[in-house]
Amino acid sequence: MIDDIEQLSRKLEELRLEHRDLDEVIDRLIERRDSVDLLQVQRLKKRKLVLKDQIHKLESALLPDIIA
Fold first, then answer.
1. How far, CA to CA in Å, does 23 sit from each of 19, 36, 49, 57?
2. Of 20, 5, 19, whose CA–CA distance to 62 is shortest?
3. In whole angstroms, what is the distance from residue 57 CA to residue 49 CA?
């Protein structure tokens, strides 16, 4: 059980790091206004959304259920 939690925590950090990295890449691509590849930016943004969903799922799995 603890190993599972540690694995999920590591995976969560990896996903967060990739999400931040994509943010930086997208920002840099947009700053280069003369040669922006809109298709590439769109693909990167889609990947970011997928990562965001995965991050939320892992966060939910790691947080204990709160009964109100």
1. 6, 15, 11, 20
2. 5
3. 12
pLDDT per residue as tens digits for the range 18-56: 999 999 999 999 888 777 888 999 999 999 999 999 999
**CB environment 6-16: b (16+ within 10 A), e (fewer):** eeeeeebeebe
Which secondary structure element, helix H or strand E, spans residue 48, and what is its range? helix 38-62
Residue entry with tokens 């999920």: 8
**What single-letter DSSP state applies at residue 36?**
-
**0.85 exceeded by the pTM?**
no
